[in-house]
Amino acid sequence: MLYAGLRANLGPARADRRLLSDRGDGLDIVTEEAQRYLPLISSLPPRGVVGYLQPDDWPAAGAQRRFYLAEYSLTPRVVVMSTAPEYVIVVPEASVAGDSGGISRDPRLADFALLQRFDNGLRVFRRLK
Q1: Of 23, 24, 107, 125, which is the most buried if we count CB atoms within 10 A?
Q2: Each residue's pLDDT tens digit, 82-124
Q3: DSSP structure class, residue 25
Q4: Exposed/middle/buried for 64, CB within 10 Å: 0-12, 13-18, 19+?
Q5: How far apart are CA 24 and CA 74, in angstroms?
Q6: 3-state DSSP call for residue 127?
């Protein structure tokens, strides 16, 4: 009886197997986007609140997705949509005026200095004391 039950679902099982093999070796979009934030970990405190400078197109669906993935990727840090914390993540989609000498000309980051710029366009700023 077990054999008959397994045999009855053989078609869907074959289809599922084909879908897995057709997917290829590429990562899904969520995994790729979440990995975007992993290099920041070494520049951020191990715990606590970290700011996030939202892009100009907020609340576009893509911008919201990137923020939620930043929250997920950077756990146990708490990522908030604010420049109040000591550390602030600036995404390339946020229209931040150019940096000169490590100081941003963006008025939202007036009291911050550039801590690190990453190859993927992300930047971490730290509040000047």
Answers
A1: 125
A2: 999 999 999 887 766 666 667 777 888 888 999 999 998 899 9
A3: S
A4: middle
A5: 28
A6: strand
Rounded distance between C-alpha atoms, residue 17 and residue 77, angstroms: 38
At 9 the pLDDT is: 56
For residues 80 and 52, is the Cβ–Cβ distance under 8 A? yes
Pairing of strands 87-90, 78-80: unpaired
Query: Cβ of 83: how many Cβ atoms within 10 Å?
Result: 19
Query: Which residue bears the tokens 């911050």?
Result: 112
**Whose CA is closest to 90, among 59, 107, 114, 65?**
114
DSSP 75-96: TTSEEESSS-SSEEEE-TTS-P
127 neighbors 44 (Cβ within 8 angstroms): no
CB neighbours (10 Å) of residue 72? 13
Pairing type for strands 78-80 and 49-53 reads: parallel
